[in-house]
Amino acid sequence: MVLVDRFREDLKKSDAESRMTNQKLQQRLKEQFQKAMGGTPSWADSSLRKKEEGDEEEDDEDTEILRKTGNYVGTSTSLPKGIIKLKKCLNANNEKPGEDRLTTVQFHPSAQVIMTAGLDHSISLFQVDGKSNPKIQSIHLEKFPVNKACFSANGEQVVATGMRNKLFYIYDMMEGKVLPVPSVQGLNEQRVKEFEVSPDNEFLLLTGSSGFLHLMTMKTKEVVRSMKLNGNVCATAFTADGGKVFAHSEEGEVYVWDVRSSKCLNRFVDDGCVRGTSLAVSREGLYVACGSQSGVVNIYSQKACLQDPAPKPLKAVMNLLTPATSLRFNPTSEILAIASRAADEATRLVHIPSFTVFSNFPMFRRKTIYRAHCLDFSPNSGFYSVANNKGHAVLFRLLHYKDF
């Protein structure tokens, strides 16, 4: 059951609205989200930005960075290695922190919006301006701690899976409706926790047990084909065109499948990996990153992964000392964010193509990130966020990138 009463109060415009019908609630949600989708946020308005920056008290390091680069304008076309110019912002979900560990943070594919979800049974949307990050809306899923939530490729829906069974929810943000999907035709699994949305918005790739992967159509909610690897699946990713699927097994093997035919195109052992833990594919089709239990992250050429039966890593990143549980390339394929949820501050930003770690991140003497459970970059790399075990979506402004 979905509890809407918990956020009806947030959507009232006056005390006169003592009762709000479902129809009125849906309309109000639609208005709020559409408002967030359009208009110019304060971070993009130069006059507002200048005023706000003048009012802020910056620390010495931030002031020096801003004096040299400006707050939002990059100084070169390619990202330099060594030192990354960034600024810590107010937490993205400051207006509604999670009451338990966050499992998801994700930027909307086209709007200045970020989503958080977690074990407190909630999914929340915030408008990202880097200053106040106002909450747009929040929903509560009764008895449903969220394992993962993800925007659809067109940005109009959110798919959310839980921890315990195969029930999942689809939240239509434009209509303000939350639709339970209690069963999927052709899916013979006791529970579904992990999934990926295809870039063309046609499929959900559901991770099953015993090495099975299932392709479910978004339109009919039925499994149309399944694939199987040896062992158990630890992570999956679509290629940017949606035509192929990469899957990393706990046994340290990487499989590549063709989505349309379900044919296995290649299979190889992740170099030196005893137990696989994570996987990421870059948007531009250049790289594949594989994380392991030892903390090593191997970065491969995606072309080599498609053709070579035993590809060698371009680089083995060894800066994590605990399992590499989260990996994310930025949209320009100039940064690979890596993290381990097993230790505080165990996250790094890797410069590409030099494959060197930025020396000033994490950049604070006191703990800021804590245990990272999910990572994401905004559509044009202007912001980077880390969801942690404290219920916070820690937010950074990457000053090299001028757009959101």
UniProtKB/TrEMBL annotation:
It is found in: Nucleus, Nucleolus. GO terms for cellular component: Pwp2p-containing subcomplex of 90S preribosome; small-subunit processome. Residues 1-63 are annotated as: Disordered. It comes from the Eukaryota. Residues 54-63 have a biased composition (Acidic residues). Keywords: Nucleus, Phosphoprotein, Repeat, rRNA processing, WD repeat. WD repeats lie at residues 233-267. PROSITE patterns: WD_REPEATS_2. InterPro entries: Utp18 (IPR045161), WD40/YVTN_repeat-like_dom_sf (IPR015943), WD40_repeat_dom_sf (IPR036322), WD40_rpt (IPR001680). SUPFAM superfamilies: WD40 repeat-like. Residues 1-18 have a biased composition (Basic and acidic residues). GO terms for biological process: rRNA processing. Part of the small subunit (SSU) processome, first precursor of the small eukaryotic ribosomal subunit. During the assembly of the SSU processome in the nucleolus, many ribosome biogenesis factors, an RNA chaperone and ribosomal proteins associate with the nascent pre-rRNA and work in concert to generate RNA folding, modifications, rearrangements and cleavage as well as targeted degradation of pre-ribosomal RNA by the RNA exosome. Involved in nucleolar processing of pre-18S ribosomal RNA. Belongs to the WD repeat UTP18 family. This is U3 small nucleolar RNA-associated protein 18 homolog. The gene is UTP18.
